[in-house]
Design a protein that fits this description.
There is one protein chain. The chain is α+β, with helices and mostly antiparallel strands. The chain has a single domain, classed as Roll (Mannose-Binding Protein A, Chain A). Strands 1, 2, 3, 4, 5, 6, 7, 8, 9, 10, 11 and 12 form a twelve-stranded mixed sheet that branches. The structure holds calcium ion (3 copies).
Length: 239
């Protein structure tokens, strides 16, 4: 995991709602979000009060302008009975209501960031699975990132298949191993490297990772940054 340069800060959240608009109005957090656009990565973590009955925001971070939020269900959190935890459809609806989507993980950098956030709230060996935005419901065995609208394929061939993009399946368990019964994606805190598993959509699991696109007006800045990096790389090549 590479989180060097990222500072975790924990702040108490006394709000009772988990929506994005109810995010704690900590000036420090807003400042960090702005800094994140320049520094690419900034992390802030929110620890929620215990008695909340709705999904709660636990931690958040930004990477290349995209914001990731880790939510826990309202069932009392880790170690609680999963009776009123989120199904895939519930998590999807919550993400949409917040103005985001269930997260895509398209690089090791994104995987490390999200794993780091979850690690900051999970005490192993508590079982904790978090919904992500991938599925093979369109074509069994072909896994795509659908929730961000890209439909990028990252795996083909199901259990004995191969990568078509970045993936982090738990291949020790030969995931994705659920065939037609498991068509949605979760990150598993029980695995050694925060690996992925395919899960039945109706299984109530503990939480979700929600992703948000950059705010309008910041895309140009990020693009300029990448342009600068590209130019630097070309200069190095030419030299
Ligand atoms: Ca992503
Ligand atoms: Ca499947
Ligand atoms: Ca599975």
């Amino acid at each position: 995991m590479n989180l060097s340069g990222c500072g975790f800060s924990h702040i108490e959240d006394s709000t009772t709602e988990g929506s994005k608009s109810k995010r704690p109005n900590q000036p420090g957090v807003k400042q960090k979000m702005k800094k994140a656009l320049l520094a690419s990565v900034a992390i802030s973590a929110v620890s929620a009060t215990a008695a909340q009955a709705v999904p709660t925001l636990q931690a958040s971070a930004s990477l290349n302008g995209y914001t990731y939020e880790i939510y826990l269900d309202g069932a009392g959190g880790l170690g609680g009975l999963p009776g009123n935890a989120w199904t895939f459809a519930q998590a999807q609806a919550a993400a949409s209501a917040n103005g985001g989507y269930l997260a895509t993980i398209k690089s090791q950098e994104e995987q490390d960031l999200i794993a780091g956030l979850i690690a900051s709230i999970v005490d192993k060996p508590d079982p904790a699975w978090f919904w992500l935005g991938g599925t093979d419901s369109g074509s069994e065995g072909t896994w795509t990132w659908t929730e961000d609208g890209s439909n990028d394929v990252f795996w083909t061939g199901g259990k004995y298949g191969s990568a078509a993009g970045y993936e982090n399946w738990d291949r020790g368990l030969l995931e994705p191993n659920g065939f037609g019964a498991e068509n949605h994606l979760a990150i598993n805190s029980l695995s050694n490297s925060w690996e992925w598993i395919d899960v039945n959509a109706h299984l109530p699991i503990y939480g979700a990772v929600i992703e948000y696109v950059p705010e309008p007006g910041t895309v140009g800045l990020i693009g300029l940054g990448l342009l600068g990096l590209g130019a630097a790389a070309r200069r190095r090549k030419a030299a």
